[in-house]
Amino acid sequence: MRYFLRYILVSAALAAGLAACSSTPEDEQKPAAVEERQQVPLPAGGATTQPVKPDSVARVDLTGAGKPPPRAPHNDPGNILSRRSIYYDLDQYTVKDQYRELVEAHAKYLRANLQLKMLVQGNTDERGSREYNVGLGQRRSDGLKKMLLLLGVKEEQVEAVSLGEEKPADAGHDEAAWSKNRRSDILYSGEF
Amino acid sequence: MPRMRKLLAAFFVAFLPQLATAQLSIEITGAGAQRIPVAVVPFAGEAALGPVVTAIVKADLERSGMFRILEVPAIVPVPTEASAVNYAEWRARQADGMVLGSVAVRPDGRLEVRFKLHDVVKGADLSGVAYTLSRDQVRSTAHRISDYVFEKLTGVRGVFSTRIAYVVKRGPRFELQIADADGAGEETALASLEPIISPSWSPDGRRLAYVSFENKKPVIYVHSLLDGKRNVAANFKGSNSAPAWSPDGARLAVSLSRDGGSQLYLVNPDGSGLRRLASSSGIDTEPVFSPDGQTIYFTSDRGGSPQVYRMPVSGGTPQRVTFEGSYNVSPRISPDGRLLAYIARNGGKYQVATMDLATRQVQVITDSDKDESPSFAPNGRMILLATVVGGRGVLSAVSSDGRVKQRLTISAGDVREPAWGPFTK
User: Fold this and answer.
1) Phi and psi for B41 in degrees, rounded to 5?
2) Domain B163-420 belongs to what architecture?
3) How far is B16 from chain A (nearest CA, A)?
4) Does residue B165 contact residue B208 with C-beta atoms inside 8 Å?
5) pLDDT for position B63
6) Which residues from chain B sit within 8 angstroms of residue A187, using beta carbons?
7) What does the pLDDT look like over B202-236, one tens digit per residue?
8) I need a surface site. Which of B25, B160, B265, B389 has the fewest CB within 10 A?
9) Do A127 and B343 lie within an 8 Å CB cutoff?
């Protein structure tokens, strides 16, 4: 979840940068954003007061400020490419079948966008030697990289590294946490 | 009765409110069976100083687990190093060793500390030293007196004047810190929002090699402690990790994944002169040099489970060193080259084990269960390690024979990745 939020933030920053340089045709065709106000829940106990609207006049802004930035496919929450983590069983380093579609989608995306680079970070749970865990995390990221290369991705596009046990997704100390920490994370250009 | 005292000590450490200071505090949880009884008489004139010299000396000696510090009744007039000694009187107090001394302020404002050590059993004057120092050197001078007493009475060089490096994690912050061996006087060499692991002291004690994740991947840096300047020693494609200095300080052994997998290489501390050391289809990591610089010990899972191996630095076939159990990692060699310390997993517990390299006899020397990163004191007598107590990372020290145990805790933070520095001049 935290990673997900981070990607959203990174994507917003990234896209804001892109928007400053150029605007794509797709971008121009998008309608102006409609601002959505969050519904204010009524206080419990069935109070009958109405929330007072701070401003009764809807504002129309054509200056471009507040326009949602364009999203790269790998940052679009609706796109499979926004899924960036794959998880492993204890002492396992091969990509499970359930992630095949995900890995294939990333491979296809990299093949179609040769300017994009990817960093694969392998991670382990906290048990055992920190340095040996760097080795185990590397085994995971190397495995994912190898799979991407077999799917036609160019070697120069992918770097496989390890964070060992140093960047847990879940700070807990039980199997529920550890299963979230045995993972490989995918980062794209601009995110590393 | 000593057990009772230990329990009380543990109680106070556990329940006293944590002080605001970040300084490491040390708790002794076990002591050697044969402790030398020593009397340290308060030095004439020391009460006027900030830190009390004899209090630091007594704490040093006590902490080593090799001495029993005797209570000394108030003596009038206060004796100095020049006073005549009535050995029979000190024998009656059961002292084997006795220290007398004085502190004086010189006309230039500097201090002069003089002391003399006596062998009470033999009735012999074991000589002493006079130091001239500034007021901010009282602590370091006290550690030198402790080193002197330790060496004269045990025949082994003391490590009270050495320093340790470790990493503290506080919230999102990681700090690489340096402190005196007693945990006092800590200084931060590097602060980062990304992890720092595997600090390794250069043999001259002036530089640290370590792994920093500040670039979203592990990169090896060499950091000069005096001026804070640092250079990249290894930042190849992939992971760069596990640096260890050669005894001559000319090279680093490292584990790199640049050619696929985690493999051993040698590289100069300035990043030049890369050379591959070994090849395997497994993970090869955690290299360390033997004290003579001829052999590399390392962790490898080439045989199916992680075990300690060794190979000549000049190349050749690695030989497996550890055989018991399915997880033996993080090898370190004692300064005399005779003892291998490593982390062994025993039924889910990660503990420090030692192996006598001549007899191959293995001994588990800790009773904690999440031990990591053992590090020999430069005299080989103690091993510093990281462990977890009450969900918090702490440092612990254990004598190489497992008898003496100490715990170093720091308030408001997790401490890990200790490395004991070399002897300083």
Assistant:
1) -75, 130
2) 6 Propeller (2.120)
3) 26
4) yes
5) 87
6) 216
7) 999 999 999 999 999 999 999 999 999 999 999 99
8) B389
9) no
Burial class (CB in 10 A: 0-12, 13-18, 19+), B338: middle
CA distance B239 to chain A (A): 5
Q: Tell me, what CATH number does A180's domain have?
A: 3.30.1330.60
Torsion of CA A83, A162, B421, B411, to 10 degrees: 20
ipTM for the assembly: 0.90
The domain spans of chain B are: 36-154, 163-420
Chain A contact probe: residue of B167, B193, B216, B349 with most A CBs at under 10 A: B216
Chain B CB contacts of A159 under 8 Å are: 217, 237-238
Tokens of A116: 């994009």
**B-chain residues within 8 Å CB-CB of A190?**
none
Nearest to A128 among B213, B238, B327 (CB): B327
Say if A26 falls within a structural domain. no
pLDDT, tens digit, 9 for 90 and up, residues A142-187? 999 999 999 999 999 999 999 999 999 999 999 999 999 999 999 9
Mean pLDDT computed over every residue of chain B: 91
Q: Which residues contact B359 (CB under 8 A, 6 or more apart)?
A: none
State the smallest CA–CA distance between residue A112 and chain B in angstroms.
Answer: 23
- CATH code, residues B36-154: 3.40.50.10070
Distance, CA of B135 to CA of B46 (rounded, Å): 12
Quote the strand ranges of B237-327, DSSP E: 240-245, 252-256, 263-267, 275-276, 284-289, 295-300, 307-312, 319-320
Q: Do the Cβ atoms of B380 and B339 come closer than 8 Å?
A: yes
Domain range for A87 is 78-192
| CA dist list (Å): B160 to A83, B98, B377 | 53, 19, 10
- Full-model pTM: 0.84
Per residue in B17-40, pLDDT (tens digit) is 333 345 666 666 666 667 899 999
Rounded distance, CA A168 to CA A178, Å?
Answer: 8
Q: DSSP H helical segments within B106-250, as ranges?
A: 138-154
**A61 in a structural domain:** no
What's the number of domains chain A is made of? 1
Q: Burial code of A97-133, b = ≥16 C-beta within 10 A, e = fewer? A: eebeebbebbbebbeeeeebbbbbbbbbbbbbbbbbb
